[in-house]
Amino acid sequence: xxxxxxxxxxxxxxLSIELFPPKTAQGRAHLDAxxxxxxxxxxxxxxxxYGAGGSTQNNTLELVNTIRQTYNVPTVPHFTCVGxxxxxxxxxxxxAMAAGAQNLVALRGDKPKDAANFQPAPDGFRYAWQLVAxxxxxxxxxxSLGVAGYPEGHVETRDLNLSIQHLKQKVDAGADxxxxxxxxxxxxxxxxxEMATKAGIxxxxxxxIMPITKYSQIDRITxxxxxxxxxxxxxxxxxxxxxxxxxxMAGIAAAIDQAGELLENDVPGIHxxxxxxxxxxxxxxxxxxxxxxx
Length: 294
Known about the structure:
Layout: H1 3-9, E1 14-19, H2 25-38, E2 43-48, H3 57-71, E3 75-80, H4 86-98, E4 103-107, H5 128-139, E5 144-149, H6 160-173, E6 177-182, H7 186-198, E7 205-209, H8 215-225, H9 231-237, H10 245-263, E8 269-273, H11 278-292
Parallel strand pairs: 1-2, 1-8, 2-3, 3-4, 4-5, 5-6, 6-7, 7-8
Helix pairs in contact: 5-6, 10-11
């Protein structure tokens, strides 16, 4: 089922879960064990990330295909176009579609760390909206596209108005759904959603939630992506040793409260960034499952 069909036809908010391709056999064995737990939830779809510069391209598609075949659950690959030529985009997308993909999360991706002045491939794309436009022109309605939204503004564009303009370009180019970057203050999401609506964006906007079970890890992630952890939440979490059971449960409780408020305010779904760990997700679904199931 394509993104636009999934959200149009759903009578309840859609739960979606994001994974990343493990780099080792041990990591893969761990993920396989976690999947048996995650798929006990009423998940609408799983998505699988794509490493910087395509570093996990083959692993992404292999994991997507394995999950789809083994568990018969809709599974969506990500694609980042940094450094990609148009032919490499076609190769990846057609390989994904040949294996049954109907949806793709289309992203620009992070610029290379050593690229002071980022330059796309000679026939590639500088912006995500260009990738979206190319995919829609090439594959039309055969492929439904998700894109990223940034409730606190993009790390390279702290002007939220400008971020909304860029988001509108992606939607106008053919995106069917927006999945946001992680955030921890719902006021940021509600402001972002209101601004998007005023800008004429009508596709579903899905909040992305990353429960904090190890404060130091999420603190690093937020610094890299330009998100923030509110001071009051930081105070609660850092009162406990890093990654301790008490900190984990405090972080999960905060995520449950955050997602609960969002679900009470008419979001079409919740997208949970799991970091390949089922623990927090299972606690969240246990507390909030009535939102996702009749």
